[in-house]
């Protein structure tokens, strides 16, 4: 077994603290990864604080993992020692259902194996995520990080990047399409960069105009404050696609009114509350309300290669592991520009507190 240092939530709503555990020795198809950086996704906060229910503790969060391969199992063909790799939101799936075969592992009928807060497929090992020194993952669930992308700023692509790339690609964002992103946070800022690179006309719908200069620098053509009611009159019937990244309740009917005929409002943010929608908001304009969940392995690799081609990385603020609890509070307060990334070298210092 491989001794691993990490930070875990021992209980819901408790501060994360040092945690020592073991990773399995590599099986035939496993890759052992020395984790160098891990992004902090708002989903980490939701799960560590048990806002979605059913959290499994102790929990080492983290599913925006970037690192270097240090060992491979005897049958591994895709990776070798020294390769720059990433791991996203899941580390396994059944591999047999129609969705797994189509590369839509995130919709595996038996359930994907989450990178953390899940049971591994042996039914008894708790999966543990990327706020740790090492992870062992089957080569088929590992991504290659292109050489031109720095590992720290590429880490958030593994969740925030793919979560926006997938719906943008599915709903065909591109030249001639008007795309709006609600919420300029970790997911939202990646959405702006990706939609802009795809050639779409991009609008940010943010709570205020505080982040306007950033939004425009990231690639937005337009920027509106949703606290201003005039925004909703002015933009009525404008967009082909709106992606909502907000993790709080919003006025769904008001946003549906911003869609063109046949437009789609896609949910990726996860508020605790249900989504209330009036029938007229949908039937007036044949509008769709849809959802999207991360992306499959093949599409995640496609996204990473797209980012390398267009020079897209995340805007990050790098922190040491002992700043993680403060970072969680700042994520909740929308006070991050635009993703915290933990430098895992900090786990091996005295300040980490082991
Ligand atoms: P984040 O960095 O906190 O960004 C969320 C943004 O939403 C904020 O920056 C803020 O943008 C806006 N916002 C926050 N509170 C708001 C409020 N009360 N009303 C209106 N807008 C508000 O979070 P994230 O990491 O991007 O994650 C966003 C959500 O997506 C989370 O719920 C997360 O669990 C979920 N998620 C889903 C998937 C998926 O596959 N579907 C994957 C990853 C994450 P402004 O300041 O611009 O208003
Ligand atoms: Zn995430
Ligand atoms: Zn499956």
Automatic annotation (TrEMBL):
Cofactor dependency: Zn(2+)
SUPFAM superfamilies in the cross-refs: GroES-like, NAD(P)-binding Rossmann-fold domains
UniProt domain Enoyl reductase (ER): residue ranges: 11-342
Domain of life, source organism: Bacteria
Keyword terms of this UniProt record: Metal-binding, Oxidoreductase, Zinc
Pfam families xrefs: ADH_N (PF08240), ADH_zinc_N (PF00107)
UniProt GO MF annotations: alcohol dehydrogenase (NADP+) activity; zinc ion binding
Alphabetized PANTHER family for the sequence: ALDEHYDE REDUCTASE (PTHR42683)
Family of this protein: Belongs to the zinc-containing alcohol dehydrogenase family.
Record-given protein name: Hydroxyacid dehydrogenase
Species whose genome carries this gene: Nitrospirillum viridazoti CBAmc
């Amino acid at each position: 077994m491989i001794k691993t240092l990490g930070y875990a939530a021992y209980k819901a709503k408790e501060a994360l603290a040092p945690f020592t555990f073991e990773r399995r020795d590599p099986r035939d198809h496993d890759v052992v990864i020395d984790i160098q950086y891990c992004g902090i996704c708002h989903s980490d906060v939701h799960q560590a604080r048990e806002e979605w229910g059913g959290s499994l503790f102790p929990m080492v969060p983290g599913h925006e993992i970037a690192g270097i391969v240090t060992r491979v199992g005897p049958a591994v063909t895709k990776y070798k020692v020294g390769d720059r790799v990433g791991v996203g939101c899941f580390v396994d799936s059944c591999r047999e259902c129609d969705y797994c075969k189509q590369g839509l592992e995130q919709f595996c009928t038996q359930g994907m194996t989450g990178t953390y807060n899940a049971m591994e497929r042996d039914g008894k090992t708790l999966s543990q995520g990327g706020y740790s020194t090492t992870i062992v993952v089957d080569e088929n669930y590992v991504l290659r990080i292109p050489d031109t992308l720095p590992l720290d700023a590429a880490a958030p692509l593994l969740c925030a990047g793919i979560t926006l790339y997938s719906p943008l690609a599915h709903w065909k964002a591109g030249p001639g399409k008007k795309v709006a992103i609600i919420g300029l946070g970790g997911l939202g800022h990646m959405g702006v960069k990706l939609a802009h690179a795809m050639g779409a006309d991009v609008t940010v719908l943010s709570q205020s105009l505080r982040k306007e200069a950033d939004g425009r620098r990231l690639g937005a053509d337009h920027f509106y404050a949703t606290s201003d009611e005039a925004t909703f009159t002015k933009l009525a019937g404008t967009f082909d696609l709106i992606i909502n990244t907000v993790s709080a309740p919003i006025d769904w009917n008001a946003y549906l009114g911003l869609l063109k005929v046949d437009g789609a409002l896609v949910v990726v943010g996860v508020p605790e509350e249900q989504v209330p929608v009036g029938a007229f908001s949908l039937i007036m304009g044949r509008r769709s309300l849809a959802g999207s969940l991360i992306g499959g392995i093949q599409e995640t690799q496609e996204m990473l290669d797209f980012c390398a081609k267009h020079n897209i990385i995340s805007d990050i603020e790098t922190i040491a592991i002992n700043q993680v609890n403060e970072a969680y509070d700042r994520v909740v307060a929308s006070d991050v520009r635009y993703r915290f990334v933990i430098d895992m070298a900090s786990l091996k210092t005295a300040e980490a507190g082991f």
